[in-house]
Specification:
The protein has five helices and two strands; from the N terminus they run ααααββα. By secondary structure, the protein is mostly helical. The radius of gyration is 12 Å and the shape is globular. A hairpin with a 4-residue loop joins β1 and β2. 55% of the residues lie in helices and 5% in strands. It has a single domain, classed as Cytochrome c-like domain (Cytochrome Bc1 Complex, Chain D, domain 2, Orthogonal Bundle). It binds heme B/C (HEB). The site of heme B/C (HEB) has 27 residues, from α2, α4, β2 and α5.
Length: 88
């Protein structure tokens, strides 16, 4: 499915930037290609499903939907697409 990068930017700024903007608490920083390239190789489906469900990495944790259960799966997908487009 196609992702809406305009929606994704807004969802990102409201829900993801707090961690991913500065790359705090182990979050891969948006725009940092080195931090993202190996992650992007997993493919969009995997990146999005892990962002929806949340997961614990080796040291740090990505909260489900960034901690906002009101987001739809499509909104999370748009935000991931925006982050990847900024970080590739
Ligand atoms: Fe995050 C990771 C997305 C929010 C923290 N994230 C991540 C990733 C993605 C994301 C895509 C990658 C995955 C892989 O690699 O597989 N986020 C996202 C989004 C959002 C977010 C879309 C909004 C909704 N985060 C967030 C927040 C935080 C975070 C808010 C804090 C609290 N993350 C994180 C971390 C990580 C991530 C820490 C890493 C983990 C590991 O270790 O791996």
């Amino acid at each position: 499915a196609a992702h809406d990068l305009v929606s994704g930017k807004a969802v990102y700024e409201a829900n993801c930037q707090s961690c991913h903007g500065a790359g705090i608490m182990g979050a891969p920083k948006t725009g940092d290609n080195d931090a993202w390239s190996a992650r992007i190789e997993q493919g969009m489906e995997t990146l999005i499903s892990k962002s929806i469900t949340g997961y614990t990495g080796e040291k740090f944790m990505m909260p489900a939907k960034g901690g906002n259960p009101d987001l739809s799966d499509a909104e999370v997908g748009d935000a991931v697409a925006y982050m990847v487009s900024e970080s590739s």
